[in-house]
Amino acid sequence: MAVIPVNVAGRPYEVRVGSGLLADLPAQCGDRLRKKRVPIVTDVNVAAHWREIVDGALRGGGFDPQWLVLNPGEGSKSWAGLERVVEWLLAEEVERGDHVLALGGGVIGDLTGFAASVLKRGCHFIQLPTTLLAQVDSSVGGKTAINSPAGKNLVGAFHQPSLVLADLDALGTLPHREMGAGYAEVVKYGLLGDAAFFDWCEENGAKVIAGDHAAQEYAVSRSVEAKARIAEADERETSGQRALLNLGHTFGHALEAETGYSPDLLHGEAVAIGMVLAARYSARRGLMDGSDAERAARTLTAAGLRAELSSLGLTCNGQALAAHMLHDKKMDAGTLPFVLMRGIGDAFLARDVDLADVAAFLDAELVR
């Protein structure tokens, strides 16, 4: 088992990466579970695989698990979903010193974390991420949110978990497509700041997706270490350093918005295409070599991900996609910073991007 400390100011915690963590839940959580009744938020899909194991582990430790099982998907990450979770936690008489367990992917982690942040002005929660995407990204760093009609993750709070248990066994229940979507975020850490890790991803990506636990532990741990360093330095995204984690996301969120946040385009799939677009746009501006941009595209394609914007079959134009970006939560004084690249492993925040130029670039990519 790998243990990665996250030393954010005032609320340090650990991310533990290994096998068998959910079956060993009482020991892993320790005295964080201070009352017999333990509230757990999950979704239907995760419950089908893990409710029996988690329930049995907690009951074996003398606890009485209480379950709220939600519908899967982004639809639960809404005002209505937040109200349902908060009212349920209030009915469970959760106190500020208690810990709520978030068992699932990014939707469950984001929703439960945000509910914990507002419940009685803030209670504790533990992340139990069951997808590769959640293990390497959304469960670490304290960003919690819900979606609104105006866009994704526009309503939320910074609220750090007390513990993250990334059980690699959970990855064995994921469809191949979900593994690929999560793997896009693994590659992101190499592209934004670790060229050597990107090299490793080129050679070992197939092993991660195929279920090799040694490769998975290394990929998850290395990704978490990278995110932890950035979150520690810029927890609330005020210095620009944490914004580097959004590599591919400005483009990706626009694609998600255009496709209606539907299951036809998973978040990681959108980010994969978004990273290729960011790399190619960087090359268009003369910031990086075009061959490096295509290397990024090949690495993602080799992992079974779509890398071409044209593969989505969109009927819109570049201007329509650029318009979605105006709702990006990173907008500052009327300008939108973009994460661009000077090369593999060298991302930076550009504040001089002209959306009209982006729209023209996207027009070309739509028919590439």
> In CATH terms, what is the architecture of the largest domain?
Up-down Bundle
Strand count, sense and closure of the main sheet? 7 strands, mixed
Number of domains: 2
**CATH fold naming of the largest domain:** Dehydroquinate synthase-like, alpha domain
Explain this structure.
The chain is α/β, with parallel strands linked by helices and 368 residues long. It folds into two domains: 2-173, Rossmann fold (3-Layer(aba) Sandwich); 176-366, Dehydroquinate synthase-like - alpha domain (Dehydroquinate synthase-like, alpha domain, Up-down Bundle), CATH 1.20.1090.10. Helix content is 46%, strand content 18%. The protein is built from 13 helices and eleven strands. A seven-stranded mixed sheet has the order 1-2-9-6-5-3-4, sandwiched between helices. Strand 1 (2-6) and strand 2 (13-18) form a beta hairpin. Helix 3 packs across helix 4 (106-118) and helix 5 packs parallel to helix 8 (213-233). The mean pLDDT is 95.
Keywords:
Dehydroquinate synthase-like, alpha domain, alpha/beta, 13 helices, Rossmann fold, 368 residues
Strand and helix map with partners:
Elements: E1 2-6, E2 13-18, H1 25-29, E3 37-43, H2 44-60, E4 64-70, H3 79-91, E5 99-104, H4 106-118, E6 124-129, H5 132-138, E7 143-148, E8 151-158, E9 163-167, H6 176-193, H7 195-210, H8 213-233, H9 249-258, H10 267-284, H11 290-302, H12 318-325, E10 338-343, E11 346-350, H13 355-366
Parallel strand pairs: 2-9, 3-4, 3-5, 5-6, 6-9
Antiparallel strand pairs: 1-2, 7-8, 10-11
Helix pairs in contact: 3-4, 5-6, 5-8, 6-7, 6-8, 6-10, 7-8, 9-10, 9-12, 10-11, 12-13
